[in-house]
Amino acid sequence: MLIQWYPGHMTKAKRAMQEDIKLVDLIIELLDARIPLSSRNPDIDTLAKGKFRMVLLNKADLADNAATEAWIDYFKKAGITAIALDSRAKTKMRDIQNKMLDVCKEKIERDKRRGIQNRPIRAMVVGIPNVGKSTFINSFAGKSAAKTGNKPGVTRGNQWIKLNKNAELLDTPGILWPKFDDETVGTHLAYIGSVSDDVVDSEELGYEFIKEFLNTGRTDVLKARYETDPENFREEDRDYVLSVMEGIALKRNCLKKGGEADTLKFSKILLDDFRTGRLGKLTIEMP
Questions:
Q1: 287 found inside a domain
Q2: What's the pLDDT tens digit per position in 160-191?
């Protein structure tokens, strides 16, 4: 399934980020804890060169806890501080600010040697669309400082938010990159809604989701939610995957006229169940 999505406003947003990067000390990159690899924009590494870095594994409440810990360890080995986060919860925000100060300790000490006291850490918050940047900023700031939405493209321009005397955040629009070299990346981004549903074939995406879970032997997820127990399979078998989808669609009363299974309707239910956590705490990618 080949998915590419790079609307024109993302080119403009990337240019604005390139202009503003010189104003900040720290890059805070939000990733989706369910797909930390696919939700990493490779352009950020280039943009953030020479800056302090932090990674927030957002939506960790929807991801497998052990998998998230494995990802935190993965980033630690790469020299990047990573924190598991549910951006709607305000309880962790003090910890994050302390981590910001810790990550930028070298810069703070350098300022002190130069006689600069109490200069706030200026951080740019970056990430792909629909990863929860604005929700995180609002929780951090304790007010509705940034626009939020459950679809990509809500934030369109850079905006500064002053948290307190110690920290200022620059909210940026969610951007992807012009071409996904690996087809799996586009598919995984579509699972979580970071690619607009308007450009995706939902039925085909549902098929890919079921196929991926069958290929990895994770039939327990399908059994628990949809009361189906398909056999594991290790090779491409489109008819078999479609038969699984049709069977679940019939059980869920997703029907076309005449009683035929409506796999498009079921696919939309399936994706919504995944995105909202009704399938359980799932991580699609492991380090």
A1: no
A2: 888 888 889 998 888 888 888 888 999 999 99
pLDDT (average), residues 241-247: 93
Coil/strand/helix, residue 120: coil
In order of 61, 71, 186, 194, 208, the CA distances from 205 in angstroms are 23, 26, 10, 13, 5
Determine how many CB atoms are found less than 10 A away from the CB of residue 5: 19
Distance CA 19, CA 140 (A): 25
Report the candidate in 90, 84, 73 with the shortest Cα–Cα distance to residue 140: 90
Identify whether residues 26 and 99 lie together within a single domain: yes
SS (H, E, C) 15-81: HHHHHHHHHCCEEEEEEECCCCCCCCCHHHHHHCCCCEEEEEEECHHHCCHHHHHHHHHHHHHCCCE
Q: Up-side HSE of residue 5: CA atoms within 13 Å toward CB? A: 23
DSSP 197-254: GGGS-HHHHHHHHHHHHHHTT-HHHHHHHH---PPP--S--HHHHHHHHHHHHHHTT-
- How far is residue 128 CA from its own chain's centroid? 7
- Is a pLDDT exceeding 70 seen at residue 148? no
- The total number of structural domains in the chain stands at 2
Segment 133-137 shows an average pLDDT of 88
Q: Which burial class, exposed, middle or buried, applies to 194 when counting CB atoms under 10 A from its CB (0-12, 13-18, 19+)?
A: buried
Domain that holds residue 69: 8-171
The helix (H) or strand (E) run that includes residue 167 is strand 167-171
Spatial CB neighbours of 240, under 8 Å, sequence gap ≥ 6: 214, 230, 233
> Is the entire prediction scored with pTM above 0.90?
no
